From TrEMBL:
<protein>
    <recommendedName>
        <fullName>Homeobox domain-containing protein</fullName>
    </recommendedName>
</protein>
<dbReference type="InterPro" id="IPR009057">
    <property type="entry name" value="Homeodomain-like_sf"/>
</dbReference>
<feature type="region of interest" description="Disordered">
    <location>
        <begin position="291"/>
        <end position="322"/>
    </location>
</feature>
<dbReference type="GO" id="GO:0003682">
    <property type="term" value="F:chromatin binding"/>
</dbReference>
<feature type="domain" description="Homeobox">
    <location>
        <begin position="5"/>
        <end position="77"/>
    </location>
</feature>
<keyword id="KW-0371">Homeobox</keyword>
<dbReference type="InterPro" id="IPR001356">
    <property type="entry name" value="HD"/>
</dbReference>
<dbReference type="GO" id="GO:0003677">
    <property type="term" value="F:DNA binding"/>
</dbReference>
<keyword id="KW-0238">DNA-binding</keyword>
<dbReference type="InterPro" id="IPR039276">
    <property type="entry name" value="SHH1/2"/>
</dbReference>
<keyword id="KW-0539">Nucleus</keyword>
<dbReference type="InterPro" id="IPR032001">
    <property type="entry name" value="SAWADEE_dom"/>
</dbReference>
<feature type="DNA-binding region" description="Homeobox">
    <location>
        <begin position="7"/>
        <end position="78"/>
    </location>
</feature>
<dbReference type="GO" id="GO:0005634">
    <property type="term" value="C:nucleus"/>
</dbReference>
<dbReference type="Pfam" id="PF16719">
    <property type="entry name" value="SAWADEE"/>
</dbReference>
């Protein structure tokens, strides 16, 4: 299905001790992103450890990405999706059957007394209405940084402005970053509804040709970038969950990589695809149940008929003996 990365550079990994420390911090923060100062302190502490000092520097963005990945994973496990699919990889559906179905229009819930709203494609941004709490009714967004081309969660939209070209920009504060990292970004090109981490049962909805947000790990950094799925290798699931693999091509550097589902975040537009897949699977299960009931009924009727056929012979034997 393709080739793995060929640059030969080892991927950056946190040590087990570093992971334990970050997990404890995330738990203390109730699964919210720690402040920038704490992330900087962790990066400096890890860089000065005996295992890393003089060998490899840990960057703040690497620490930030670990927290974002962990938050995504916890959110995917704790939040029940509106559609639940079987984890069986044997359920097949033609890609064009679901890809060409019109997608629902997303609408955001705007907080009362919020700052003036900004129209963004099919939904609305309200300054100060995003990222202020766990309220699931408020739509979450991600933005593409002009500094590195990667996508980050949005904490707040601070302001907006109209350019002479007619384009509209928003002043974005990224989740986990401070005022020094605020950016003016083109709303149409660089801001969108947040991508969704995939549960193991949702691998059937990731199809070749899809735009996804994919976690690219390199020697010096690990960031989320846009990518397109080139091929999907379906594998039987086991106790570890989804074992499928996806060949992706990153949009920013045209590199190709084979990745597991845990590195893939699907776009919200695929929700409708999941609903259709679920409906088709339910229909198939209902048909199978009807066949089972019909076969069971025929079996019962056959047994009853056989018993009724034995009654006259029994009575005849009784009459003869008497």
């Amino acid at each position: 299905m393709g080739r793995p990365p060929s640059n030969g550079a080892p991927s950056f990994r946190f040590t087990a001790q570093e992971v334990v420390e970050m997990e404890a911090i995330l738990q203390d923060h109730n699964n919210t992103m720690p402040a920038r100062e704490l992330l900087d302190a962790l990066a400096e502490k890890f860089s000065n450890s005996e295992e890393r000092k003089g060998k490899m520097m840990v960057q703040m963005k690497q620490v930030w990405n670990w927290f974002q990945n962990k938050r995504y994973a916890i959110r995917a496990k704790s939040t029940k999706p509106p559609v639940k699919l079987s984890a069986s990889p044997n359920f097949q559906i033609e890609p064009n059957t679901v890809r060409n179905v019109p997608q629902p229009v997303a609408t955001a819930v705007v907080a009362p007394n919020a700052a003036p709203a900004v129209k963004l494609s099919n939904f609305t941004l309200a300054s100060g209405s995003v990222g202020k709490g766990p309220d699931a009714s408020i739509m979450e967004f991600e933005a593409k940084s002009s500094r590195d081309g990667a996508w980050y969660d949005v904490a707040n939209f601070l302001s907006h402005r109209h350019l002479e070209t007619g384009d509209l920009e928003a002043l974005v504060r990224f989740s986990g970053f401070g005022v020094d990292e605020d950016e003016w970004l083109n709303i149409r090109k660089c801001i969108r509804q947040r991508s969704l981490p995939c549960e193991a049962s949702e691998c059937v909805a990731v199809l070749p040709g899809d735009l996804i947000l994919c976690f690219q790990e390199g020697k010096e950094q690990a960031l989320y970038y846009d990518a397109h799925v080139l091929d999907a290798q379906r594998r039987r699931h086991d106790v570890r969950g989804c074992r499928c693999r996806f060949l992706v091509r990153y949009d920013h550097d045209e590199s190709e990589e084979i990745v597991p589902l845990r590195k893939v975040c699907r776009r919200p537009e695929t929700d409708h695809r999941l609903q259709q897949l679920h409906a088709l699977k339910d229909a198939a299960a209902q048909v199978a149940q009807q066949h089972l009931q019909r076969a069971s009924g025929d079996s019962m009727n056959g047994a009853t008929g056989a018993q009724q056929g034995q009654i006259p012979a029994t009575l005849q034997k009784h009459q003869i003996s008497s």
